[in-house]
Amino acid sequence: FMIDEFQVLEARASGADAILLIAASLTDAELRTLRDAAKKMELDTLCEVHNREELERVLGLGSDWGCDAYGVNARNLKTFDVSLDVSLELLAMLPKDAVRIAESGIHTASDLQKLRTAGYDAFLVGESLMRQSAPGDALRALLAEPVKV
Description:
Layout: H1 5-13, E1 18-22, H2 28-40, E2 44-49, H3 52-59, E3 69-73, H4 84-90, E4 99-103, H5 109-118, E5 122-124, H6 127-130, H7 135-143
Parallel strand pairs: 1-2, 2-3, 3-4, 4-5
């Protein structure tokens, strides 16, 4: 994730296709500056939010501002609690023309299917796989179709 314009240049020089902007760690001016720098360098931007307030702030930056993708991180940064309800609640507010990514709290094939059915395009899964003794097997199980009862 980016906090300085020089990092955007480094990302481009390293062959990156996109950068991450975390709304919780950036001011409105920093969000604009970094997004503009990314556009100049032909990098896509993923803007990550954790709650309604952050999303409203990001969307309120104006019609000339926007990211290529929006990630809703289900982890509360103050309590570290994780709830997929956050992802489901904020989905309707995300721009329809952007890639919509559900982040954190995905543990089962049912979780993934629920988020996919709701309308998410992509998923960030980390902790639930890394805590497994066999992450590859856990990933295969996560990607398996859930059994309907």
